[in-house]
Design goal:
alpha+beta
Length: about 150
């Protein structure tokens, strides 16, 4: 099973979309294994977005992610990274597929509501940055057999 970091960014929190986003991930069959509602420190923001350092939008990105609380979560499931990114939609909401979170609730890329890990390697790094190991809960959902068991 894969795990992915998911952030509901300040615009998603301010617009009251936390419940809707969690609902969609749960309905997709993913399992929440960690969550915390928090303010992002400058240091955490700079570390998380270090790959964008020096780009024209970097300072605005740091200011934005620190401007209001975020909902930080870890979700687990089979092919979780791809499933979550598909559920979120393309980074640019105007090209995101209909029915995705970004298509349905966003207009511009700089206010696209969420972040989700893009690879297993990045997921592991991001989860370790945002959560302590003891904050991750291992548990079984009653419907996992109906979601993931092969008919073979």
């Amino acid at each position: 099973m894969e795990r992915s970091l998911v952030l509901i960014k300040p615009d998603g929190v301010q617009r009251g979309l936390v419940g809707e986003i969690i609902k969609r991930l749960e309905q997709r069959g993913l399992k929440l294994v960690a969550a915390k509602f928090m303010w992002v420190s400058d240091q955490l923001a700079q570390t998380h977005y270090a790959v964008h350092f020096g780009k024209p939008f970097y300072n605005g990105l740091i200011n934005y992610i620190c401007s209001a609380p975020v909902m930080a979560m870890v979700w687990e499931g089979q092919d979780a990274i791809a499933a979550i990114r598909q559920t979120m939609g393309a980074t640019n909401p105007t090209v995101a597929a209909p029915g995705t979170i970004r298509h349905d609730f966003a207009i511009i890329s700089s206010r696209n509501l969420t972040h989700a890990s893009d690879s297993v390697e990045n997921s592991e790094k991001e989860i370790a940055l945002w959560f302590k190991p003891e904050e991750l809960v291992t548990w079984s959902k009653i419907d996992e057999e109906w979601l993931f068991k092969s008919n073979n």
